[in-house]
Specification:
Blueprint lengths: L1 H15 L3 H8 E10 L5 E4 H15 L1 E12 L3 E10 L2 E12 L2 E9 L1
Parallel strand pairs: 1-6
Antiparallel strand pairs: 1-2, 3-4, 4-5, 5-6
Helix pairs in contact: 1-2, 2-3
Length: 113
């Protein structure tokens, strides 16, 4: 779990750097998928190019900073957390699950409330 807690903390640092390509390269497998449920329809993105585009949009148009982690759980290959972030519309709760293979995210689920 300590390795994945470090991974999570590094994810927060990479988000703060506002560089989608660096984030994806550091933490996501080549064939990673991200499933986002934030609007009317889910967003499903596959591969590093799509993930980089998604994170670049998010970092430039939505995300304004990390506030706090309310809940965190990890196994040897998975992370789940509830956190509060600052967005262009104010504070927002996020709920994410990440499944990792060989230290890289292969599947990332994300939602908000």
């Amino acid at each position: 779990m300590n390795d994945l807690k470090f991974f999570y903390e590094e994810q927060i640092e990479l988000l703060a750097a506002k560089n989608g390509a660096a984030l994806v390269e550091a933490h996501y497998a080549d064939n990673a998928e991200m499933i986002v449920i934030t609007g009317e329809e889910p967003i499903i993105v596959k591969g590093k190019v799509g993930l980089t585009q998604l994170f670049d949009y998010y970092l430039n148009n939505v995300y304004r900073g990390f506030i706090s982690t309310e809940k965190f759980a990890a196994t040897d290959d998975s992370i789940m957390f509830e956190a509060t972030i600052d967005t262009v519309n104010g504070p927002l709760k996020v709920y994410d699950c990440m499944y990792l293979v060989n230290g890289k995210v292969i599947r990332h689920f994300s939602g908000v409330k």
